[in-house]
Amino acid sequence: MASPYMSQIIMFGGNFAPKNYALCNGTLMPINQYQALFALLGTNYGGNGTTNFGLPNLQSALPLSFGQGQGLSPYGLGQTGGVPQVTLTQQTVPSHQHFMLATKSPVANASAISTSVLPGVPPASGGSLYANPPTGSLPPLVPHPLAAGTCSPIGNDQPHTNLMPSLCVTFAIALTGVFPSRN
């Protein structure tokens, strides 16, 4: 393999960083030992900029290119984002409506649709909760509020994981190599 560019990040199938690489785990590096690498990374990934600087930390994170794609949010070099878990609450779910069609009779066997009540008993046979009138189109609905307690919120405001399918590999950054020049 040709000499990598200094600060080039590779994916590696092993559980260690190859020779002349370091794990992308946010380690603070001494500037006096890695001046050329510091010249490339600066404090974009942490450190105080006087005695140390940070390596990128890709532990439990996905890499994302800096800049702004068309119609997307802008991201700066070294910026982190996202959260491992999300809690959906009534305040965070977008406002929306649920419509319900129901029959008027106590048994779901009416061929006309009404929004007044739900059937109290499922049909024995041949009934239908949702029935199309002979024309094949549904009549316009007039929203009616349901009685208190008819519907209740679902969920307990507990977080759920927010992780797409993934495969873990080792990310490593070149500590030595060719110092990249700008075009």
Query: How many β strands by DSSP?
Result: 7
- Major sheet details: 3 strands, antiparallel
Q: Can you tell me the overall shape? A: elongated
Question: What's the gyration radius in Å?
Answer: 30 Å
Average predicted confidence as pLDDT: 80
Unreliable residue runs = 129-133
Alpha-beta content class: mainly beta
Strand order of the largest sheet: 1-7-2
Describe this structure in words.
- The protein is mainly β.
- The chain has a domain at 1-62 and 168-183: heat- and protease-stable fragment of the bacteriophage t4 short fibre, domain 3 (Alpha-Beta Complex).
- The chain is built from 1 helix and 7 strands.
- It has one helix spanning 35-41, and strands spanning 9-12, 21-23, 28-30, 52-54, 85-86, 160-161, 170-174.
- The protein has a 3-stranded antiparallel sheet, with no helix packed on it.
- The longest helix has 7 residues, at 35-41.
- It is elongated, with a radius of gyration of 30 Å.
- It starts with 8 loop residues before the first strand and ends in a 9-residue tail after the last strand.
- Mean pLDDT is 80; it is low at 129-133.
In short:
This protein is mainly beta and 183 residues long. It is built from 1 helix and 7 strands.
Topology diagram in text:
Blueprint: E1 9-12, E2 21-23, E3 28-30, H1 35-41, E4 52-54, E5 85-86, E6 160-161, E7 170-174
Antiparallel strand pairs: 1-7, 2-7, 3-4, 5-6
